[in-house]
Structures are given as C-alpha cells and as structure tokens.
Amino acid sequence: MRKNVTLDRFDRRLLDLVRQDNLAPARILADKVGLSVSAVLRRLRRLREEKVIVADIAVINPALTGSALTMHVLVRMQQAGPQTMDGFAREIARHPEVTGAWDVTGDDDFLLKIQVGSMEEYDVFTRRVLGEDKGVHSFTTLITIRTIVEDDTTRRPLRDR
C-alpha cells in the first residue's frame, strides 16, 4: 500500500487551482498561491512524480460527442465468488461505453455507468456484454433524465491527513 504524501498549504492551493484548470500558466498560479513561478513549477513536478497528480485530462461534453444517454446499471451475478467477480470486472473494463464501474455492497454486485448515443446502442451493448455473460444473473437499468451533480473531483475538498 502506498503511503500518504505530505502536502502543505501551498500544495493544497495549487492542487485546488489545477483541478479547476490544469492549463493555467505557472505565472497565474504563482500569483494566486503566493510563490515564485519556479517554486510552482517545482511543486507541480514533484506532485506529478509522487503521483498526487496522476493525469492532465480534458473533460469532454458527451452530448456533443455522440454519447448523450447515460444509464446506471445495477448488475447481479449468479455467484459472488472472487473468480466470477474479477472476471466480470476485467471484461467490463474493456468496453468504452462503460465510463464508470464499481463493485458495490447490497443485493447487487456491480454498479456501471454506461454512456451511449441511443437506446439502440444500449440495447446492442446489453445483449452483447451483459446478456452473453453466463455469470450475470440479472441487471436493472436506470436511465438518467438530467444530471444534477456529476462525479467531479474538482468539487471535493482536499482533506488533511
């Protein structure tokens, strides 16, 4: 298990800023944090090397890229043994329609977030992926009508350790 990285108030402020806009110039970050540009660049390099910052990504609008429909799917397996669960987890991670997947507690075993362009695409996905998997007992689909809060890590406060 990886140990926690020590973050001071400058690191936390920098992380808050780059979570909002990772393309912000170092001089702007330096002004907002109260450090020199070189100190900001050193800290950002260290945060990336220590894997505190694991990726610099773009958040894409799915409605504009052909994935306007979001479904949340509760999947119940025939048996909840490690081999079945691990196999399903590996298989489901291979499909680009699956934009989130969680192993959950309760009556169901997995929660999937599926993004597709149409109900027809979803039907093809469920028949091909969930319907043909002998380990899947059943699944329940919840169709998203509108998004209230997205799973957005920029909203979560950084916690002191």
From TrEMBL:
One biological process term in Gene Ontology: response to amino acid
One example GO MF annotation: sequence-specific DNA binding
Annotated protein name in UniProt: Transcriptional regulator, AsnC family
Residues passing through the membrane, by range: 52-75
PANTHER family, sorted: LEUCINE-RESPONSIVE REGULATORY PROTEIN, TRANSCRIPTIONAL REGULATOR AZLB
GO CC annotations, alphabetized: cytosol
Pfam families hit by this protein: AsnC_trans_reg, HTH_24
SMART domains the record matches: HTH_ASNC
InterPro entries: AsnC-type_HTH_dom, Dimeric_a/b-barrel, Tscrpt_reg_AsnC-like, Tscrpt_reg_AsnC/Lrp_C, WH-like_DNA-bd_sf, WH_DNA-bd_sf
Record bears the keyword Mitochondrion: no
PROSITE patterns membership: HTH_ASNC_2 (PS50956)
Boundaries of every HTH asnC-type domain copy: 7-68
Key words, A-Z: DNA-binding, Membrane, Transcription, Transcription regulation, Transmembrane, Transmembrane helix
